[in-house]
Description:
Largest sheet: 4 strands, mixed
Oligomer: single chain
Number of domains: 2
Order of helices and strands: EHEHEEHHHHHHH
Strand content: 5-15%
Strand order of the largest sheet: 2-1-3-4
Number of helices: 9
CATH architecture of the largest domain: Up-down Bundle
Amino acid sequence: MVVTLYGSETSPPVRGVRMACKALGIEYDFKKVNVFAGDLQKPEYLKINPHHTIPTLVDGDFILWESHAIVTYLGDKAGNDAWYPKDIKKRATLQQRLHYNNSIIFTRFRAYVEPIFYHDDLNVPPERIQKLQDALDLLEPIIHEGGWLVGDHPTIADCCCVANVATIVAVLPELTLKPKVAAWLRRCEQELDGFDEINTPFIKIVKELLAKKFEAKK
């Protein structure tokens, strides 16, 4: 059965799920949601996701939101051991990487972009940028010697994490990457199937939207 995925193409968590679907061989019907037009607050959307967030997955009569809950559910559904290991230690490590991605990397990126997009607040405190730099720096010790987040093969953790990291470094080029993180990002760009299709054009849109916000205030 083809699942249905609701989301915005510019959202890093949505792009992470789409990358994971491609890796896992999950077919999905993508329903675009316009967050700036208030789609998340419409009754028909709130009916499936009362938390009015993206992404949201519908699989028959089962509904699930939160990107990492979705990718792990799909990992189990696909039964792909390479992308979502069954070994409990590898899986625990993968879960840790996903939690770091959500609770630190994405949370800090959202704290940067939301005031700009939704409140036209362009006075970004320096410490907000520094927290993003710190989040990128702390990726360095958790990249496996095999070159990926969990081992010597990419997993759904790489799909989700790179959607955030690639966006952050594109919109804030003044941030620096430590050697292992820089090599990991290049590896994701070159080797993850669908990166150019799912990430590249929409990262460009996010960058352009932010630039327009700052340009309009000059």
